[in-house]
Sequence to fold (362 residues):
Amino acid sequence: MLIKGDPNPPPPKGAILLIQLGDIGDVVLTMPTIRTLRDHFPKVRLYVAVRSKTKELIEDCPWVDGVVSIEKRRRGWWEGLKYQAAFFKRLRKLRFAWAIEIRTGHRGAFLAFLSGAPIRIAQYSDEEWLWRNYLFTHLVRPTGETEQYAARHALNILSPFEITTSDMTPTLHVSENRRQRAADVLFRHGIKSNQPIVCLHPFSLWAYKEWHPEKWSQMIHFIHDNYECEIILTGSPDDRQRAEELIRHYHVPAHNLAGTTSIGDLPALLEAVSLVIGVDTVALHIAAAVGTPTIGIFGPTPSVVWASRGARHAVVTKALDCQPCRRKGCDDSEKSRCLDELTWSDIKGPVQRKLEDLLRGT
Fold:
C-alpha cells in the first residue's frame, strides 16, 4: 500500500539506483526485482548499490549497467570525510532520476537522499529510525510478508507503481571465466568430473541455524556407502577449519572446499555440482539461482519465507508445534531444539529420493 507520494511518478529519464545493503542471500533474492526493473525500463541505465563483499554477484548480471560498492571499514575522521565527499561526487555524476531503497535501515536512506534522485522510493519504517521516512518522496507499507517468499519483498515496494512480474525465480548468471576457475578448484582437489558431486553446506553465521556435526557425518557416510558420487563441503574461509575438524573427527570421505572460492565464483562451483544440501544459508539461494537442486534443513526460521521454490527443491524440518518461532533459537538462546531433535533418520528419506532422482537423470 502506498502511503506517501504520487502513484504515478514521472518516468525515470536519467538512471535508476536500486539500493540493497543486505547480506549475500538478500542480494541473490533481489535478482527478480533487478530483472523486473530492466524489463520495465529497458532503455534506462540501472545501477545497484551493494556492500562491497557482495558486489561480485552483481558484476556478471546482464540487467545492470553498473555497481555502486559500499565499503564498510574504519577511517579517521579526515580520511572518512574525504572518502565520503569523493564517493558522493562520483555518485551525483550518474544523474539518478529514481533511487529505490529495499531495506529499512538508515545507511540506505542517506544514500538515496544524497544520490540527488528527485524520486526516492522506500518501504515505510516504524522502527527506531522514524526520521528516515522524511528522506523519501514515496513510501510503501507492504502487508503479509511474514508468510511470503522473500524474493517478493523487494517487488512489493514497486507494485504500487505497476512494476510487477509473475516470475519470482532468482537467477544468477555465471561467466565462462568463473566456470573455468570453479573447474580448476575441483581438479586441484582431485574431484572426479565424471561422477555426480554432492555438496554439503553445514555452516551458518548463526549457530541457531546449524545441525550437529555428528548428524552430518552420518549423512556423508551413508551417501558414500550407497551412491557412487563425490562429496564436497563448502563454507566461508572462516569455516575451513571447522570443515577440516568434521572430516578428521568423524573420518568422513569428503573434500574440504570451504573458503576455496570468492563469493563471485561460488555460483560457478555450485552450478557444477549435482545437489546441494545445507542449512538455511546463502548456499541454498545461490544453488537454486544457478539451477542446482537443493535440500534445505530449517529450524526456527520460516521455510515459507526463505526456502527455494519449485519441485527441484526440498525442505526438511522437525515440525514441532513451536516451529518456526522466528527467533534466534529457543528464547533467543542460540540453541534450537527443533534442530537438536532433528535426526539423520528424519532427513534420510528426502536425501535418498533426491539422490535416486539424480542418478536416474530426472
